[in-house]
Design a protein that fits this description.
The protein is α+β, with helices and mostly antiparallel strands. It has one domain: Cytochrome p450 (Orthogonal Bundle), CATH 1.10.630. It is built from 20 helices and 12 strands. The strands form 4 sheets. The chain has a 5-stranded mixed β-sheet, with helices on one face. Strands 4-12-11 form a 3-stranded antiparallel β-sheet. Helix 9 packs across helix 11, helix 9 crosses helix 20 and helix 16 crosses helix 18.
């Protein structure tokens, strides 16, 4: 029995969304659940999973009834190997700041870094982003082939966020390792040994940036680290080191992994839909809508947690206070009720920007404007420099590593004609 047949025919109470096969390719499962059980309590985990567009937006916007303070629940889930505890003691304690806090505390933390991501400031970055994109393609254009994730999709946003943080590009290999470690933790799929290695790398990240924070106290520069060091909560208290590291960690992952995945998925969609590629090639004004349609279909942050704080009814289903809830953005973005013919890639789709790839409500991704700008620039440069792009592997070799929250291609080997 194939995995596709399995998720469409087995009783839904026998399937868990945490099945690795479902996480690797969730679309058939999500579509079935939108039809049969848009809000579903999983009997295996007790978690309420929310699949349809309207309900996902409703919960994401209702931070009073559905709290983002899920960090503690994630950190205390299950029995913890003592080696992990010992490794964590060598670093700084985990604290809740932007992603895992609620207003008004969340609003204060977010306000400290909002200025780094205003539309005006992001617009000034466009020439730098284009230069980075061209430099990356220059490295492999003469070969006519590359592994696009590691050679372009990853380095582009990682270099941009490193520049904004104010750290040297020579340290990019370190940032890539650290970002992968954070993603491994988020996956909830790592073995104890893999989780131990991830914690060691995260502690390494913490000490590296703790030193940078100290440097900026004495020597302020025009970068995000300096902004964080010299910010004042409620006009008086500076952030402590653990709070600062929590914010920097979120910026590193949000500024890298999701954009990497979206650019890679966008190129794959263009390869698989040559008629849509031809439309964008002949009319570059479609690039912004191409970006939105890619975000809708790829939804790199596929799912996100909430904690229900009051007995609530969503789509006719009662969710009691204290319940863990997972809102499934990738499912919402393929809801037929919101996006007709939802699995079709259409660069002219009129409502593509109504996707929830960046979330919704007060916790909408703080780096959304930067990610969109990076994608706009990336696709224009790709269209300028690379033609007749094709897969350079068997389609069956494409892999999406299972992850509870994120979804993205592990690798994308391509061949092309360059200029």
């Amino acid at each position: 029995m194939t995995a596709e047949h399995d998720v469409t025919t087995r009783p839904i109470d026998e399937i868990t969304p945490f099945d690795p096969a479902v996480m690797e390719c969730p679309h058939l499962y999500n579509a079935r659940m939108r039809r049969q059980a848009p809000v579903h309590k999983c009997p295996h985990t007790g978690v309420y999973f929310v699949f349809d567009y309207d309900s996902v937006r409703e919960i994401a916007a209702n931070h009073s009834a559905f709290s983002n303070k899920f960090g503690k629940a994630m950190r205390s889930a299950g029995e913890v190997d003592p080696r992990l505890i010992e490794a964590q003691r060598k670093g700084y304690p985990a604290v809740d700041t932007m992603l895992t806090e609620d207003p008004p505390v969340h609003r204060r933390y977010r306000g400290l870094v909002n200025q780094a991501f205003t539309a005006r400031r992001v617009a000034t970055l466009e020439p730098d982003i284009a230069n980075i994109a061209h430099e990356l393609i220059d490295r492999f254009v003469d070969r006519g082939r590359c592994e696009f994730v590691t050679e372009f999709c990853g380095p582009l946003p990682l270099t941009v966020i490193a520049d904004q943080l104010g750290v040297p590009r020579s340290d990019l290999p370190l940032f890539n390792k650290w970002s992968d470690a954070f993603v491994a933790q988020l996956s909830r799929m790592a073995s104890v040994e893999e989780e131990l290695e991830a914690i060691k790398l995260i502690v390494e990240f913490q000490h590296y940036f703790a030193n940078k924070l100290e440097e900026r106290k004495a020597d302020r520069k025009d970068d995000i680290i300096s902004d964080i060091v010299h910010a004042r909560l409620e006009g008086e208290r500076p952030l402590d080191t653990a709070e600062s590291l929590s914010i920097l960690q979120q910026l590193l992952v949000a500024g890298n992994e999701t954009t990497t995945s979206a650019i890679a998925e966008g190129v794959l969609l263009l390869i698989r839909n040559p008629e849509q590629l031809a439309k964008v090639q002949s009319d570059r004004s479609l690039v912004p809508n191409l970006v939105e349609e890619v975000l809708r279909l790829s939804s790199p942050t596929a799912n996100m947690w909430r904690v229900c704080t009051a007995d609530t009814v969503v789509h006719g289903t009662s969710i009691p206070a204290g319940s863990m809830v997972q809102i499934r953005y990738a499912s919402a973005d393929r809801d037929q009720a919101a996006f007709p013919d939802p699995d079709r890639f259409d660069v002219t789709r009129s409502n593509a920007r109504q996707n929830v790839a960046f979330g919704h409500g007060v916790h909408m991704c703080i780096g959304a404007s930067l990610a969109r700008k990076e994608m706009h620039v990336a696709f224009n440069v790709i269209l300028d420099r690379m033609h007749n792009i094709e897969l350079d592997c068997d389609p069956g070799e494409l892999c999406y590593p299972p992850n509870v929250l994120l979804r993205g291609l592990k690798a994308l080997p391509i061949r092309f004609e360059g200029r």
